[in-house]
Design a protein that fits this description.
heterodimer, A: alpha/beta, ten-stranded mixed β-sheet, three-stranded mixed β-sheet, 15 strands, about 30% helix, about 20% strand, globular, B: alpha/beta, eleven-stranded mixed β-sheet, about 35% helix
Chain lengths: ~375, ~290
């Protein structure tokens, strides 16, 4: 498949709302201070809220979408026709919860429609092209990117807008708490003493283009692979994860020896990191550095495939591979040791990016500069 | 792009009554076995439709699953939302099961599938958009199960209110499925092939398309398309009948009804509530 060119990016996260702030935090490991949120049983958990600096101009999703479109220099006609993709887990759950709190006499999920979040955004921004909302748990946005690339490669569009959003809601906090997946402490990807994840809020946007503009492009999306291992609703096997990563490399037309880094999914939960660590240990070994970015953003669930990619690209443009805060000592073998300090990254090369979700949904992407 | 061959179809619409139909009993009666334990009605509904579609056909493990829904697992999600909002603990298994892709997960588990597993929703032309997902992503020779599943939530009066429907509107559980393969077999009787998917941006574009449509092909309008084009359609068309149910994916039901009665090269035109159009070109055999 032909590559797609990442023409523009925009991100609002717990770290801030502009590339300089993100790069500074990623370089110096300035972690955002979590807010305290309460689950439905009254227990309190840390959560990385959006930085207040995101500010004005509609919802976080509308702001990043508008910024990415502006930066890509697209005309109104181009915007009006381009396909728009969204990867999200929460969709409009925060609005539904607010509506139910205000009108408990009405049924929950009034005006429910899984495509409503994206449709509202497209109406706001006068985007009249096709809309695709991907909902495959934590691989949603990565799958949205892959589908957008396929559409561009087929010549069905010249540009595509790909979005990811995750916002705090009671259902998600309480659900993850009920699964014993949240940590009250710190998110420590691949660390022997990891004990769970911290949820995060973020909104991100990229414009993909069918043809290159070397002066502007952030990177190329070379390819990727997605599969479903239906062995366990919440865990995947190392063997299956490795097979998907290998398929992603094959799709991109490169070998593992050509990778200059891996951005792991790295949730900080015991079983997920054990499986991903074992898969990476056999596939990558010590061939290239591995990092995990969830300590900076929190786990942004359905959006994480896009949010972490944008963070990675912001850092990469500064020749920087962010380190993985929280990692202290490796797990029992087979295991990996992600880089703990930020380090320089070659200006060109390829990076493998993993996003794994509930329901065995496993997606790996390969980006190149 | 190379065509998609339709290997099997199944359309299922179960009009809703005062109490939910026991889908596990229905699964057992129709397919010889019950569904997995601890799954929602939404999952059982999907399994019922998919099993009817696939039958005893063995599928390659690389088969993809593409699913769409307007409201997803709405009954369980609404219940969990209320529990979370009113200070009750959430049952972990039910929380995992309201992730939309758990439906396609259980389907993949039952059929031994490990291919791409996507849940793709759209406010406009949801079924058409899902077909596009298969169209752009299926590799040569690849197979995909493509489904549209919509469940009711009880009490129905509250669900009608939720959906903004009149108090008398008929509701249904529905589970519509297609089994597709990329590429035309070229063998007579191999199956209907979908040869093109195209979008039209508004009613004027649709009218123009119809005025210049190929004269050697049958033109069929979905109920939404027929009402959008009005009485002065520039060419002769067949019009599909509207579903009895006011909820669910009418475009999926229309698409399957159309495929089941193809007799030559044909076009189906569908229209969304906001005036966007999708055109599917198909024919009974490989081109």
């Amino acid at each position: 498949m032909a590559p797609a060119f990442i023409r523009s990016i925009a991100l609002e996260s717990a770290l801030g709302a502009d590339p300089a702030t993100h790069c500074d935090a990623l370089r110096h490991q300035h972690l955002p201070r979590p807010a305290a949120v309460t689950d439905s049983t009254g227990q309190t958990w840390p959560l990385l809220r959006l930085a207040a600096a995101g500010g004005k101009g509609g919802s976080p999703l509308a702001r990043v979408a508008a910024r990415a479109l502006d930066d890509a220099g697209l005309t109104a006609t181009q915007r009006g026709a381009m396909p728009v993709f969204l990867g999200s887990t929460c969709l409009d759950m925060p609005d539904h919860e607010q509506a139910f709190a205000a009108r408990p006499d009405q049924p929950a999920l009034m005006h429910a429609h899984c495509g409503r979040t994206l449709d509202r955004l497209c109406t706001t921004l006068a985007l009249a092209g096709p809309q695709y909302t991907f909902s495959t748990a934590c691989s949603s946005a990565a799958n949205a990117l892959l589908h957008a690339q396929a559409m561009l490669a087929a010549g069905a569009a010249d540009h595509a807008l790909v979005l990811g959003v995750e916002l705090q809601n009671q259902l998600t906090v309480s659900g993850f708490a009920s699964l014993l997946l949240l940590t009250p402490d710190a998110l420590r990807p691949f660390d022997a003493d990891r004990d769970g994840l911290i949820l995060g809020e973020a909104a991100g946007a990229v414009v993909l283009a069918r043809t290159a503009d070397p002066a502007q492009d952030w990177a190329r999306l070379l390819g990727g692979a997605s599969g479903c291992e239906a062995g366990s609703p919440t865990n995947s096997s190392p063997d299956f994860l490795r097979r998907i990563m290998q398929a992603a490399l094959a799709s991109a037309g490169i070998s593992r020896d050509e990778l200059i880094a891996v951005k792991a999914h790295g949730t900080g939960t015991p079983s997920n990191d054990a499986a991903e660590g074992a898969a990476l240990a056999t596939l990558i070994g010590g061939r290239c550095p591995i990092t995990a970015l969830k300590p900076y953003f929190g786990h942004t669930l359905g959006a994480c495939g896009l949010i972490e990619l944008i963070g990675l690209l912001m850092a990469w443009r500064q020749d920087l591979l962010p380190g993985t805060p929280g990692f202290r000592s490796p797990d029992a073998a087979p295991a990996i040791a992600p880089v703990t300090e930020s380090r320089s990254l070659p200006a060109s090369g390829a990076i493998l990016c993993n996003s794994f979700g509930f329901g065995g949904n496993t997606t790996s992407l390969v980006v190149q500069r | 792009m190379t065509p998609l061959t339709v290997l099997a179809t199944s359309a299922l619409e179960l009009l809703a009554d005062d109490a939910p139909l026991d889908l596990n009993a229905r699964l057992k009666a129709e397919t010889g076995r019950a569904g997995p334990r601890r799954v929602s009605r939404f999952v059982r509904l999907a399994l019922l439709g998919a099993r009817r579609c696939v039958g005893a056909t063995p599928l390659p493990s690389s088969t993809a699953v593409y699913l769409t829904s307007n409201t997803g697992p709405v009954a369980d999600t609404a219940e969990l939302l209320v529990q979370a909002a009113t200070g009750q603990p959430l049952p972990p298994v039910r929380f995992v099961n309201v992730s939309s892709n758990m439906v396609s997960y259980y389907l993949a588990a039952e059929l031994g599938l490990q291919g791409s597993n996507q849940v793709v929703m759209s406010r406009d032309l949801a079924w058409f958009s899902l077909l596009e997902t298969a169209w752009f992503n299926l590799p040569p020779g690849g197979t995909a199960l493509v489904g549209a599943v919509e469940e009711c939530a009880w009490p129905l009066a509250a669900h009608r209110q939720r959906l903004g429907l009149p108090a008398t509107a008929a509701l249904a559980d529905s589970s519509h499925w297609l089994l597709l393969r990329r590429g035309a077999g070229g063998t007579p009787g191999d199956g209907t092939v979908i040869t093109q998917l195209a979008r039209l941006s508004n009613d004027a574009a649709a009218r123009q398309w119809l005025a210049s449509a190929p004269r050697n092909a049958a033109l069929t309008l979905s109920p939404m398309a027929a009402s959008g084009i009005g009485q002065d359609c520039p060419v002769h068309t067949d019009n599909l009948e509207a579903s009895d149910a006011a909820n669910g994916l009418a475009d999926a039901a229309a698409g399957l009804a159309w495929l089941s009665r193809l007799s030559g090269r044909a076009y189906l035109l569908d229209r969304s509530a906001s005036g966007r159009w999708g055109v599917i070109r198909s024919q009974p055999e490989a081109p």
